[in-house]
Inverse folding.
């Protein structure tokens, strides 16, 4: 008599449903979703139903020195963030942090005021929660990763 494989437990099904809803994250190595930060900079990534990821970045040095950018990212071999106005950036994700390249398209300049810039940021993961990512606010006081 061949034994039948055990059926998934109710606990496993509940974990899977919570992960799909963004309440319990998959392994941090598996997906770059959540909130990343470094000093005066914040970046959030929140999954959308269409398979893309909502992205928002904010740098706030005070006194008119800030950047705020919102857009959509595609996760593939690289994490490509489209922040509008010709500001498309390939971010490096190593499982614990995100790195913004040192050289950005000139379209990214319109996302900043004063001498602030989005270039060369290294942001460490604060949270891998999609729910927290959707509640992250930018330097302008508005939500960075909320679906509009």
């Amino acid at each position: 008599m061949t034994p039948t494989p055990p059926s998934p437990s109710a606990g496993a099904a509940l974990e899977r449903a919570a992960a799909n809803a963004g309440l319990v994250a998959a392994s941090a190595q598996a997906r770059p979703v959540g909130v990343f930060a470094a000093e005066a900079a914040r970046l959030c990534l929140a999954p959308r139903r269409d398979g893309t990821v909502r992205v928002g970045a904010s740098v706030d040095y005070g006194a008119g020195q800030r950047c705020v950018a919102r857009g959509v990212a595609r996760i593939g071999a690289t994490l490509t963030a489209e922040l509008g106005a010709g500001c498309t950036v390939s971010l490096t994700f190593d499982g614990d942090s995100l790195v913004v390249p040192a050289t950005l398209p000139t379209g990214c300049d319109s996302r900043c005021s004063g001498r602030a810039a989005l270039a060369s940021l290294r942001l460490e993961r604060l949270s891998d929660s999609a729910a927290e990512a959707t509640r992250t606010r930018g330097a302008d006081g508005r939500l960075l990763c909320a679906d509009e």
Notes: The chain is about 10% helix and 35% strand. The CA atoms of residues 54 and 148 lie 10 Å apart.
